[in-house]
Amino acid sequence: MNELTTLPGQPASRALFLDRDGVINHDAGYTSHKDQFTFIDGIFDLCRAAVAAGYKLIVVTNQAGIGRGYYTEQDFLELTDWMRQQFVDMGCDITEVFHCPFHPLHGQGIYKQESENRKPNPGMLLTAARKYAIDMAASVMVGDKDSDMEAAQRAGVGTRCHYIAYGGNESHSAFATHTIHALPDAVAFL
Ligand SMILES: [Mg+2]
Description:
Layout: E1 14-18, H1 43-52, E2 55-62, H2 64-67, H3 73-89, E3 96-100, H4 123-132, E4 140-143, H5 146-155, E5 159-163, E6 178-180
Parallel strand pairs: 1-2, 1-4, 2-3, 4-5, 5-6
The protein binds magnesium ion.
């Protein structure tokens, strides 16, 4: 029996998967404190629309800055608590934030390792899928990097929106199903 099968009367949930840096907040490079954390225009509009449409909000974020020793796991968790409270205040609660602290080359000590969770590997998304019985084909991922789109495709996420801000220099990801230039544009794909 498929472990993702839900009980009768309990439809599988859909999720809006979000990368953090470059989607929720402007990517300042290894953001580790709320004073450096600036929300990107439209993120709350997108997330409120997703919640209204019945999606869970799930963040999947590579945080190799922990492994590199730029900031600690505790710094990350404190920033995450603050960030989640901002979403609560804006009327769109985040279900869970998954992060990967490892880096195969630049991690220090125990953090120097390959990880199935480090995007473009799909581990964080697959863990979320099992934990919340998510219908991945009916779910959406928004990310700003090719690696986000690859991770989502490998996890079976049906709709993969590559967010390239106006003036951004990323080129369209071959793993994406759509490219958007403003976050609320993803509402059309919910
Ligand atoms: Mg990013």
